[in-house]
Every structure is written in C-alpha cells, then in structure tokens.
Amino acid sequence: MDFNLNEREKMIQSAAWEFAQKEVLCQAAEIDSTARFPLELAREMGRLGYYGLPYPAEYGGGRAGYTAYALVIEQLSRASMTVGSVVAVSILSEEAIFRYGDQRQKHDCLVPLTSGSIFGCFCFTEPATGSDPRAIATRARPDGGDYVIEGQKSFISLAPVASQALVFARDDTGRVSAFVVPASAPGFLLREPCETLGLRGLGTSVVYLDGVRVPGENLIGAKGSGYEIMLEAISLERVGVAAQAVGTSQAALDLSLDYARQRTAYGRPIAEMSTIQWLLAEMASRLEAGRWLTYRAAFVRDQGHPVRSQSAMAKLFCSQVAVEATRMAMQVHGAYGTMKSLPVERLYRDAKMTEVYVGVSEIQRAIIAGSLIRE
Ligand SMILES: Cc1cc2nc3c(=O)[nH]c(=O)nc-3n(C[C@H](O)[C@H](O)[C@H](O)COP(=O)(O)OP(=O)(O)OC[C@H]3O[C@@H](n4cnc5c(N)ncnc54)[C@H](O)[C@@H]3O)c2cc1C
Q1: What does the pLDDT profile of the chain (375 residues) look like in tens digits?
Q2: Looking at residue 90, which CATH number applies to its domain?
Q3: Model confidence, pTM
Q4: 235 and 134, same structural domain?
Q5: In a 10 Å sphere around its CB, with 0-12 CB exposed, 13-18 middle and 19+ buried, how is residue 314 labelled?
Q6: Range of the domain at 85
Q7: How many domains does one find in the chain?
Q8: Residues 6+ apart with CB under 8 A from 139
C-alpha cells in the first residue's frame, strides 16, 4: 500500500495551490457576492491545462490522471469552491465524449474542451427532476437524418459561457439519448442564472431547447444509452465534488486555527480551551478521512476501474464533512463567523451545495447500497 503521490502529482498539487493563493483567493469574495462567472480565471485555468488533466495527449489532455484532477480541484476550492467547480463540472461532457464518442467526435468536440479553447455544459436536470431519469421529458424527434430537440433544462452550470452542450433527451424509442448541441444552434436559449445559496458565480441557468436541430452524427454513443453515459460521466464528477468538499473543509480548518490562536477569552487564546480543541480535532480527523477516500476513488479510476460506488461514498462522506467542518468553523469564530466580511459564512453556504448538486445524498446512498447488495 503506497500513500504517496508521485512527483508529477506533487508538482501539480503545489502549482495549483500557488495559483489558488495568488489569483483565486483575492477574487473569491467578489465572485460570491456578485455571482459573477470568473471568466478570466476560467480561461487561465484552460491555459494551465486543468480541463484536460486526465486525458491522453492526442485528445488535448495532460495525461496526469484523475488523482491530479482531484488534487487541483481540492487546492482551487481551498480558495473558492466556485472556481474549483468550474474544473469539476467541465469533466462531465469531457468524460462522456471521451468514453462514448467516436474518433471524429473526440477530435471535434472533446479536444476544444480539454484544451480550454471552449467551455461545455451538461444538460440533464429538468424542472420536474434531477434524480429520476424516467421523468426526463425533453424529446429528440428524428427528422430526416437530423434530430429536433424540444424541452427545458434546469440548473445548468457554465451555460452562459458554454459553446457546446451535452443534452439528454428521450428519443423515438422512448429511451434517453445524449446529443452534442452547439450553443449557437437556433432555438438554444438561456434564461438568467439561478440565484443559489452557494456556488455562486457558476452561471447555473435554465436552458430552453426550442426545436433545436442537430445532425444525427451528434448522437454520442449508441442510441438509447444516454442514461448509462450520464451515470458514467457523473461518477467522475462526484470525485471532483468530493475534492471540492475536502478543499472547503481544509479552508475552514485553516481559518479556525488562525482565529483560535489570536482570539482571546478570559485572558488566554481560545485555542487553549478544550471545547475549541475538540472542534479543531474533529474537523482535522474527518477531513483527513474524507481526503483519503477521495484520493482512493481517483486512484481506482487511474487503475482503469469503474468508480460508481467509490465516488458515491467519497461524495456522500466528504459533503457531510464539509457541512460539519464549516459549521464548526462558524462556532470557533463566534459572531464574527456570521459576518459577510469574513470568508467563513461563504464556506458554510458553499459546503451545503455539495450535498445537493451532482446527485443528492439520498441518491449516493442508493448507489452504495445497490452495489453492496449486488456484490
Ligand atoms: C449549483 C448547481 C449546479 C448544478 N449543475 C447542474 C448541471 O450542470 N447539469 C445538470 O444536469 N444538473 C445540474 N444541477 C442539478 C442537480 O444535479 C440536481 O438539482 C440534483 O441532482 C437534485 O435534483 P432535484 O433538485 O431535482 O431534486 P429531486 O430529484 O426533486 O429530489 C428532491 C429530494 O427528494 C428526495 N429524493 C429524490 N429522489 C430520491 C431517491 N431515489 N431516494 C431517496 N430520496 C430521494 C431527496 O431528499 C432529494 O433531496 C445543479 C444544481 C445546482 C444546485
């Protein structure tokens, strides 16, 4: 059993932390308060190769593996979970096209994403459901050699900056299929971004598909395999969400340690009080457990194995850790923790998002239990 990162992973990890401290941290509060998408940072992360980290060089990737992907997201999320999320969300379309696309689709639709020259979005959730694929109501009707897509998608991250969308729709067989849709296609319409509690600035929006026509060659994978494609892509993004939760928990612990050392009560630093030490020790222990669960899920994928259950465990556990760790950090900070001018309350709001997006905790438990029972 080897718990060491390799030299390349260590380099990528420390470069990402340096970038997060220098470029991201100073913008984190403003991204949150204005809910502005951090376009310049997102472009810079493309130049740094963050969107293509796990993929082969022939598809514009960095051949650094999924562990490197998790490490980068963790470091970015120590400064801003929204910025970490830009990288985490991008893998959804990439993974789907990489695993299921043909050579032409990989060249035309994957390389621009991995190289960071365009952004993509992933359109699964609808007003009536984010959890139940049977309730997907968006339709893709065959017309000549084309498909005409009609429907509405909700909570779509990166939609305002995306040039390309991966859209899930029910085809004429009644099953769900996946299509690459250029955002410039007539009928692809955006509403203003949703106002969310946390992860503000991710551009999360409602997308209308008003008779959008795409050629048949834009179908990804076999007809009717959309649900399988969604499950596979999302299993990787869950590793990214777990890494976001770990990064946010680390930030909560770092801020709490600093504060506890300098804040005094009854003539001594509150760090000397056993109640505060209890909180710090709980945060550190849970964080460490979550971090290794996340790294292990990424490592298993780097060995070429599926990670549906492992990534569900990592997301379930780390999102709970993040919610608890940020709550504890608020407690360490007392009234100051609730102030908008300090970062702790932002971490607390962002942490909650990890229990909801990319599948609610209840769905993660269903995946884990289903896998246990089948085994
Ligand atoms: C910031 C943000 C970004 C997002 N980005 C994207 C994106 O880019 N693309 C995209 O497609 N979606 C995106 N989403 C949508 C997100 O993935 C869904 O909101 C999420 O999967 C939950 O779906 P829902 O809101 O429809 O909840 P529902 O499915 O309506 O569930 C509501 C509640 O019902 C219970 N429940 C539902 N199903 C079950 C079950 N099987 N077993 C037990 N309990 C259950 C749970 O308590 C759950 O919390 C995003 C959401 C947010 C908030």
Answers
A1: 889 999 999 999 999 999 999 999 999 999 999 999 999 999 999 999 999 999 999 999 999 999 999 999 999 999 999 999 999 999 999 999 999 999 999 999 999 999 999 999 999 999 998 888 889 999 999 999 999 999 999 999 999 999 999 999 999 999 999 999 999 999 999 987 899 999 999 999 999 999 999 999 999 999 999 999 999 999 999 999 999 999 999 999 999 999 999 999 999 999 999 999 999 999 999 999 999 999 999 999 999 999 999 999 999 999 999 999 999 999 999 999 999 999 999 999 999 999 999 999 999 999 999 999 998
A2: 1.10.540.10
A3: 0.97
A4: no
A5: buried
A6: 7-119
A7: 3
A8: 149, 150, 151, 169, 170, 171
124 and 113 share one domain = no
Mutate to test the pocket of ligand 1, among 194, 356, 365, 368 (most ligand atoms within 8 A of CB): 356
Q: Which of 37, 89, 125 to mutate to test the pocket of ligand 1 (most atoms within 8 A of CB)?
A: 125
Q: What is the CATH number of the domain that holds 188?
A: 2.40.110.10
**Three-point CA angle 3, 8, 10, nearest 5°:** 55
Q: Do 201 and 272 belong together in one domain?
A: no
CA distances to 73, 203, 339 from 113, in Å: 17, 17, 38
Q: Which residues are near ligand 1 (CB < 6 Å)?
A: 89, 121-125, 129-131, 155-157, 196, 199, 202, 204, 353, 356-360, 362-363, 366
Which of 119, 140, 171 is where one domain is finished?
A: 119
Last residue of a domain, one of 225, 244, 268: 225
